[in-house]
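Title: Comparing notes on inverse folding

I've been comparing how different people in this forum approach sequence design from structure. To keep things fair, I'm posting one structure and asking everyone to reply with a full sequence. Here's the target:
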């Protein structure tokens, strides 16, 4: 039967077996089950429960200070939230997917435990500023753990560098042997890269250290909440100055993902070096059996799967950054449901970085470096040709001219099937009369290394100074 003009269709109330939605008063139909499953975020935002409970306790106290809760109501809410926290921590909390997210699950359980007073907790608060708070609290916590994880990676690299200060290694450009370096110099390069990663995470944490709670849905709360006191309770350094900004941006997540992607790129390059060095063609390193796998068909194989997966998982870190940037780039102010899509990439990057930081230190500590093989090939393939040019420069030849002369020497040696060290003085003097008896000393790997004693160079003396600097960095404050 069609309704008569001017008459409303009777409202369809949600089934009594399911708790009403917090916004059910406006609606005449229950959510479609497919829509309910599609919009729910509980499956992934439930990990925010410690921060959600912490934020709710602080909000209850703020409501009490504003005169919106009596002392007994405030205390009942705080006590009830402590019980909710205990259930969550012990794994006995009754999660309800139909309540969509962690916020409503906590709030509904609080109401079940303490009654009507629990319904006052959300006064002046929106899930929009609530989720921004939870994410910021989570980010501040996780960054501390990640920075410590990266410091442990640095510590192992520093320890391995200390063992290899005198171990020559061929350095590469374009994956072609270029000049001799020492292995410690190569390992310390990653220590300094990871230090910048730690600093990026630290800076990200500082910018996330701003309280969004009190911004409401978008316009700010209508009640006299002391946000400065609330920020102090929750350990924030500042209060957001604009409510729209507080609830509608996720740049703190994007910045974290960017720092994570850069860090992942560095970790991937380290893994790529080790994977390459473990090949028979290089033969520079061997992985411990504990961090390698075999083949299901080839009995002789020893595969560096752990390092390869570190390299592979960096793609997730880059992809997560692009995913959230793409989600956010076209959103009008203020909050949009699209922003729910920031959490899975955010959490995935956290989990990926923590997993890498757990496995990488013991893997690095267990590596066997074949320094004899490294030393043997460090001077091959004309690796000291630049030193030969530098020899002429010290005799007064302009570098570009010296470069040309040595290029012709190399060409001659190739044609003769010789290395630079095999050429006699008479042969060298065909290209320049400035070559003298001391030229042979300039062509050794050890002389090449010693010559590069500038700050940041690969001379063992310079690397010792860099090692001391790296040790100081890894002993810095870890917060």
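Reply #1:
Here's my take.
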């Amino acid at each position: 039967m069609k309704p008569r003009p001017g008459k409303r269709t009777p409202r369809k109330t949600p089934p009594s077996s399911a708790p009403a939605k917090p916004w059910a008063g406006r609606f005449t139909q229950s959510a479609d089950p497919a829509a309910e499953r599609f919009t729910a975020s509980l499956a992934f935002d439930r990990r925010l429960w410690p921060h959600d409970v912490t934020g709710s306790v602080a909000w209850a106290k703020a409501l009490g200070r504003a005169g919106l809760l009596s002392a007994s109501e405030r205390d009942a809410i705080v006590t009830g939230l402590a019980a909710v926290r205990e259930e969550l921590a012990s794994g006995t909390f009754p999660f309800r997917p139909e309540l969509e997210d962690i916020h409503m699950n906590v709030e509904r359980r609080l109401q079940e435990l303490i009654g009507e007073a629990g319904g006052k907790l959300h006064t002046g608060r929106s899930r929009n500023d609530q989720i921004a708070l939870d994410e910021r609290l989570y980010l501040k916590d996780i960054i501390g753990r990640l920075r410590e994880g990266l410091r442990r990676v640095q510590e192992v690299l520093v320890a391995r560098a200390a063992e290899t200060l005198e171990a020559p290694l061929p350095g590469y450009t374009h994956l072609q042997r270029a000049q001799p370096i020492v292995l410690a110099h190569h390992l310390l390069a990653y220590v300094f890269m990871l230090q910048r990663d730690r600093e990026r995470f630290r800076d990200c944490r500082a910018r996330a250290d701003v309280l969004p709670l009190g911004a409401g849905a978008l316009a700010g709360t209508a009640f006299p909440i002391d946000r400065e006191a609330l920020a102090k309770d929750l350990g924030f350094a500042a209060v957001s100055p604009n409510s729209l900004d507080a609830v509608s941006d996720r740049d703190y997540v994007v910045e974290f993902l960017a720092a994570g992607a850069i860090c992942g790129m560095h970790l991937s390059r380290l893994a790529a070096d080790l994977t390459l060095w473990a090949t028979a063609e290089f033969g520079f390193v061997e992985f411990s059996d504990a961090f390698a796998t075999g083949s299901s068909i080839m009995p002789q194989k020893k595969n560096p799967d752990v390092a390869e997966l570190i390299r592979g998982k960096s793609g997730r870190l880059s992809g997560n950054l692009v995913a959230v940037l793409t989600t956010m780039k076209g959103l009008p102010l203020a909050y949009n449901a699209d922003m729910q899509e920031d959490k899975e990439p955010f959490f995935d990057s956290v989990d990926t970085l923590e997993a890498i930081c757990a496995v990488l230190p013991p893997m690095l500590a267990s590596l066997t470096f074949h320094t004899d093989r490294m030393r043997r090939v460090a001077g091959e393939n004309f690796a000291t040709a630049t030193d030969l040019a530098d020899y002429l420069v010290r005799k007064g030849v302009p570098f570009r001219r010296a470069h040309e002369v040595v290029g012709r020497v190399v060409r001659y040696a190739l044609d003769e099937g010789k290395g630079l060290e095999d050429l006699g003085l008479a042969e060298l003097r065909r290209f320049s009369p400035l070559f003298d008896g001391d030229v042979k000393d300039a062509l050794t790997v050890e002389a090449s290394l010693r010559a590069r004693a500038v700050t940041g160079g690969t001379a063992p003396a310079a690397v010792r100074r860099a090692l001391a600097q790296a040790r100081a960095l890894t002993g810095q404050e870890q917060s």
